[in-house]
Structures are given as structure tokens and as C-alpha cells.
Amino acid sequence: MKFFTNKQAGVKVTPIFENETYESKLLEYTKERELFSGKLNEVYANLPFNGEKEILLGLGKKEELVEDKVREVFFKLVKVLESNKELEVFITLPKVESVSTEKLVNAAVEGALHATYKFDKYKSDRKESPEITINLSTEENLENLEEVVNEARDIMSGVFFSRDLVNERAEYLYPETLANIASKELSALGVEVEVYDEKQCEELGLKGLLAVGRGSDRKPRFIVMKYLNNPEESEVVGLVGKGVTYDSGGYSIKPTANSMDIMHCDMGGAGTVIGTMKLVATRKLKTNVIAVVGACENMIAGGSYKPGDVISTLSGKTVEVLNTDAEGRITLADSVYYATEKLKVSKVIDLATLTGACLVALGEFYTGAVTNNQEFYNELSKAAKEAGERVWQMPADDSFRELNKSSVADVKNTGGRLGGTITAGLFIENFVANDVPWVHLDIAGTAYLSKAEKYLPKGATGVHVKTLYNLINKILKVQGYKMYFKYNFLLNYFDEQSNLKERF
After folding, report:
1. Is 163 a catalytic residue?
2. pTM
């Protein structure tokens, strides 16, 4: 898809609010015949063979317009253009009070690009879609219009990269190939990528990761990605993604019919983290981010770990294994501890397709969250809202922590069916070193959809790539404000000293 700014070419697209009045004969015609009224996602395509063409685009009620609705509208518009084989349009986005023009443009571009995503590489009869051109302008003068469009394109490129990783089948994407892809894609953008093989994982002491991966012929890889682009700032954001590239459940084999068909998606957290690193590096953000992925397969073999085993972890804490299908939290135990203790990150977010309990509680609509720091969670929640990605904070207190206690080890890997999303998150909390602010995101429902939802496709969604980008961008801006105030303080201080010298 191509975007050009401040150019009028192709079919005119007219945005219409249902509660506004317009001088338009076409609109009068469509309203009289109840063909179009401006309701959200309504599209009327007046596309005669030999005459003036125009498309009416419904934006709903003006005061109710928000970014996510804009994404929906432009997704619908592109689908209509594809079905009508109209390859070029121009549109002027209106000024509204509820959404800044910059965010309006961003959402429009994102929505349009969402409509272009496909994962059809294995279809022999796949057809290339014709390229659509959208010429975009704004009612309110936006000097950085082109840059806003480019940023939205970069964001969606990161999201699509994440989707492709998660949609890829386990036959082709396993710990070694995942590490190779991360290394190839990110190194080219200036990210330092370190990949540790099985022997090196043993030397590091990643006993939890190795235990989970023991049953597979495809051995674990530990992937550390460092983007350090602000030496003047001490703060480093840590991202940790669950990287189980296939999950059979191990000896606690998954009992539900067809439940293993989509278990290539169990590295959804890794997909999000790697996609975010690509986006941050592409945008050349002046910030510091370190990402960690413990990649493995959870399979059944003579050497597999078993229910009843007690295993150790990098932290030294021991884990009683009651269910080998609660494997992701064990890999995360090593990864989170490594990030917070060995790499000394300032804040850490882990993302994982962790529990079926989260699907039961929140469906495929919300990500479940557990945190040890309310302020940090509030920052992330705001970033998620701006991204149109819904997050719901779960309660987390000692009543739930008690459920994870073991009589034979430091902790057990499942607290039982009740409160399963919470106890899984709190298991990981045990491995957050140095009281580092931490948020756990359970993306079991949101990373991979059973059916399309609004502008999101069936399958991988690339969930929270934009949330993390928004959060990191916000942290970056806060750092900038700090530097600004520090600079001005010093400037004022030296001015005062100079005045004192003159007076005395």
C-alpha cells in the first residue's frame, strides 16, 4: 500500500458524521433511500463506469470518535476498495475535538494497513492483491503529516513481523530458527543479539529452561537482544517473551481435542518482544531496551521432565513440577531473573501465552495483567489504551501467593484451577530480582484469535507491539523532560552565580 500526502488523485472519499449537516446531493440521495446515513463503518461507493466517482465514509457521531473507531473505518474502506478494484483514492481527514489530528492520521494509516495483512505463504493458489494508493490530507494543517504517516507504517511493519513469527508453523520455526531470524533481522538494525546454545545455557545456569526443553530433539536457545542507544540515560527497559515454539503439554499432555493444533503460537510473547525490538530499532529511538527470550519445545521423550520432579532454576530457587503443561512460567523464571539480576534492567515486562484460565476469564478480548508496581502498570495501561489493545489488571495478594507454596520445594508450578491466571503470574514474581518494577501480561486470549475481530485477523494479532512502543516512547519523552528541566535549572543557577559576582 502506498501513501502520499496533500495530493488529490483518484476517487474522492468524503468523511461523513451522522449528526452533522452537509451540502451534498449524493448524501441527500443516499439518506432518502436509506442507503447511507453516516453511521460508523458505513461505506457507500458511488462508482459509475463513466461519471464522477465518490465514496461516502461513515464516521458515526462526531463527539464519539476515538482512535480505535478510526482504525475500524479505514479497515472497512480498504476492503471496499479491494472488492471494487478501485486502486487510488484521496481523502481529507476532518478536525475533531475528541482526537488530535496527529492521532487521527496515525489511526487511519494503521487501519488501512491492517486490511492488507495475509499469511498465505503455503497456499499454492495464492493471488497477489493489487496495490492501493491513499492520498491523505488533513483539514487542520499538520506540518509533520508525512512523518506521522511514516511512523504508522513502521509500527504496522513491526506488528506484521510479529504476526508472521507467531503464524509460522513449528516445523519451520523452532528455537534455533527463531534465534537465527531474530539475529538476522535485528542485527541489521543495530541491535546486539547474543544467542546461547544448549551447552552455553548450561554454563549460564538456565536449569529451568533446559528442563522444559529436555524432551525435544530441537534444543533450547537463549536469545538476548540489546538496543542501547542512549548512553546518557541509566534507565533500561526489560522485555521478556515466552518462547515455547511448540507445546505438547509434555507428560501432562493436552487433553482437549484439537488443542495442540495451534500450539505453534505458544511463542506469542517472543513474537511480540522481537517485533517490538524491530520497531524500536527501525524508529531509532533514543532509549535503552534489552529483550530476553528463552526458546524451547515442550515435548514427550524418555528424558523429558515429569510431574513430581523437583527442578532448580537460575535464581537457585527450586520448583516442584505438578503439571508439565505449566511449562511457560518455568522458562520465564530463568528469563526474568536473568533480565533483572544479571542484566540489571530498571523495569521489566514479561509477555506470555500462559494460561487457559485467562481465556476463560477474559475471552479473546482482554489481556490479563499482574504487577508488583501500580505506578508502572498505570503507565502501561495508558499506553495500551492508546494502542487500542485492552488490558485488565487482576487482583494479586497473599491469598493467591499461598496457593503456589510447595511442601517439598520453594514453590510449585501450579496453584490449581482456581485463580489460575493470577497464580501463574505470581509464580513469575518469585523470580523478579531486586524489587524491579514488573508487569506480567497473559496474552493467551489476545495473541492468537479463533476468528477475526474488527480489524484483527484470525490467527496471530501482533498484540502489544504498539503498547510497548507507546510505553517506551512515553518513557523516552519523560527522560527528555527531565533533561530539559535539569538543563534549565543549571542555566538559571549559573545565571544567578554570575549576577552575584556582578553585585559583590
Report:
1. no
2. 0.94
